[in-house]
Amino acid sequence: MTKTARGARVLITGAAAGMGRMYAERAVAEGAASVTLWDRDRDALDATVRDLEAAAARIAGQTRITSDVVDVAEMGSIAKHAHRVRNKVGAPDILINNAGIVRGNRYFWDTDNGDDTRQTMRVNALAPMYLAHEFLPDMIGAPYRAKRIVNIASAAGTLGNPRMAVYAASKAAVIGWSDSVRIELEQAGHTNVKVTTVTPSYISTGMFAGATGPLLAPVLEPGYVVDRVWRAMLDGKPLLELPRSVRLSRFLRAALPTRVFDVVVGDGFGVYKSMQDFTGRQK
């Protein structure tokens, strides 16, 4: 799996639209054996499946497209549909934990613990853990076949940012968990399974509509991100930071006293003001 996803079984969450759909299109174009789409939106899923099947037919591909309406916020739903995936197409060779939500432009004390905090943590932090826990035994049990797990975190998980405290917390959890699992797999000798953690800044998918890209971290184009993530996944790269300034901000966060960092990066680079005009994707 060092060059393409040809012959691989792929599962993508949040796959009915946006970048999830783009990952699916990439898998079909490369001749994946199967592409399984999970999302909550049945209508969007059905439309995406039709388009992917048409794309596969145009290239005379043999990719099998399947989909399920899954609420990844519910552990029971994940377990139920993971069983369905095994029965229909087999456990995935590539798992892309792409689903995510953001509730922003409010201070933490103004958020709703039930709707905002609990749901954000379930979708962004717990769902990738539940999914990986479901399929890792299958991946480990096939030691002679390359396996990949991609966990889409965020640059927000690497430093604090006003008006998105719970989102930042959820992505920080993903980063710590994802890299820990990577190290565990390496220590245990399961070198066929590679974990890639992705920490992008804002992406122009509509999810962060209204947010402003800080200095040195412009809002990213989805196609560029998908291409970089895909290549990093195939290469088994442990960490992908987009843009490179994300790494710089981590370095400055460790090197500078907190109050100096607040002034130089938080205020000077505009990080702490980036969510002031956030509106998010409109329903």
Automatic annotation (TrEMBL):
<dbReference type="InterPro" id="IPR020904">
    <property type="entry name" value="Sc_DH/Rdtase_CS"/>
</dbReference>
<dbReference type="InterPro" id="IPR002347">
    <property type="entry name" value="SDR_fam"/>
</dbReference>
<dbReference type="InterPro" id="IPR036291">
    <property type="entry name" value="NAD(P)-bd_dom_sf"/>
</dbReference>
<comment type="similarity">
    <text>Belongs to the short-chain dehydrogenases/reductases (SDR) family.</text>
</comment>
<keyword id="KW-0560">Oxidoreductase</keyword>
<dbReference type="GO" id="GO:0016616">
    <property type="term" value="F:oxidoreductase activity, acting on the CH-OH group of donors, NAD or NADP as acceptor"/>
</dbReference>
<protein>
    <submittedName>
        <fullName>SDR family NAD(P)-dependent oxidoreductase</fullName>
    </submittedName>
</protein>
<dbReference type="Pfam" id="PF00106">
    <property type="entry name" value="adh_short"/>
</dbReference>
